[in-house]
Each structure stands twice: as structure tokens, then as C-alpha cells.
Amino acid sequence: MFINWHDPDHVYLVCGKTDLRKGIDGLAMVIAENYGLELYDNSLFLFCGSRNDRFKGLLWDGEGFILLYKRFENGHLSWPRHSSEAKKLSARQLDWLLKGLNPLPVRRIKAAQPGTFY
User: Fold this and answer.
1) What's 100's DSSP letter?
2) What is the pLDDT of residues 65-87, one digit of tens each?
3) How far is CA 99 from the centre of its chain?
4) Distance (Å, rounded) from C-alpha 115 to C-alpha 13?
5) Are the C-beta atoms of residues 60 and 40 closer than 8 Å to each other?
6) What's the pLDDT tens digit per position in 42-65?
7) Using CB atoms within 10 A of its CB, is residue 104 exposed (0-12), middle (13-18) or buried (19+)?
8) pLDDT per position as a tens digit, 91-100
9) What is the reported pTM?
10) Disulfide check for 26: which of 22, 39, 103, 104 has CB 3.0–4.6 Å away?
11) Could you tell me if 35 and 86 are in contact, meaning their C-beta atoms sit under 8 angstroms apart?
12) Rounded Cα gap, residues 49 and 21, in angstroms
């Protein structure tokens, strides 16, 4: 079976570290208990452990879950570790992630506070 990463309607990146020893049931519980997202609406959920050269994906195909595992032999991912939330990715951001780029660039300029004058 060939999986096209862009077929799902929604792609969510679970930021931070996830225990990749978890299987389908464990990863589904992570989504249901921590993020409140719908597991059965053609969504792909991406998880990364402590090593940045591999990740897992969980996808509902209408009949059951598919557990995906990808390991890069030459390179690594730039996985956001700064929060514990699930971020929705666009097709472009997904491509960045699979090329080893950070799909969620960190803002370097802070927003101005209202009423602050210099």
C-alpha cells in the first residue's frame, strides 16, 4: 500500500516528545486525551520521540488505523520541541518537515505591547 502524505484532509504535528514505543491504541489515546481532536475525520497525526531521525504517523483510512513509521538514513527532522500542543500543518509545511526544515518557524521579533512608546 502506498501512502500519499498529502491525501489526508488534515495533518497535525504533535509538538514535543512522544514515546514512540506506543502503538496504535497508545497514540490514539494521546490524541483523544490530550488534544481533543477527531481521530476519524481523515486526519494524519505525526509524532516524534527523542531522536530526530524518525517519526510515526497515525492515519484512519475509513476501515481502520494505519501506523506509519519513517526513518531517515541520512539527515534528520527539525521537530518543534517548545510546546506540548498539536499544530495543524499545511501541505507546504509538511513538505518542509519531510525535507528536515522546521515547519513552525520561531518568531524572532516580539509583538509590540499596546501603549508602549519608545
Assistant:
1) T
2) 999 998 888 877 777 777 778 88
3) 14
4) 36
5) yes
6) 899 999 988 888 899 999 888 899
7) middle
8) 898 888 878 7
9) 0.80
10) 22
11) yes
12) 9
* Amino acid, single-letter form, for residue 116: T
Can you tell me the distance from the alpha carbon of 103 to that of 118, in angstroms, rounded to the nearest whole number? 34
Q: 73-92 burial, b if ≥16 CB within 10 A, otherwise e?
A: eeeebebbeeeeebeebeee
Q: Which triple of cell numbers denotes residue 61?
A: 483510512
CA distances to 25, 41, 54 from 105, in Å:
31, 27, 20
Share of the chain above pLDDT 70, in %: 92
CA-closest candidate to residue 48, choices 5, 89, 91, 78: 78
Percentages helix, strand, coil for the chain, rounded to the nearest 5? 15, 25, 60
Q: How many residues does the chain have?
A: 118
Instruction: Give me the residue label for grid cell 504535528.
Output: 13
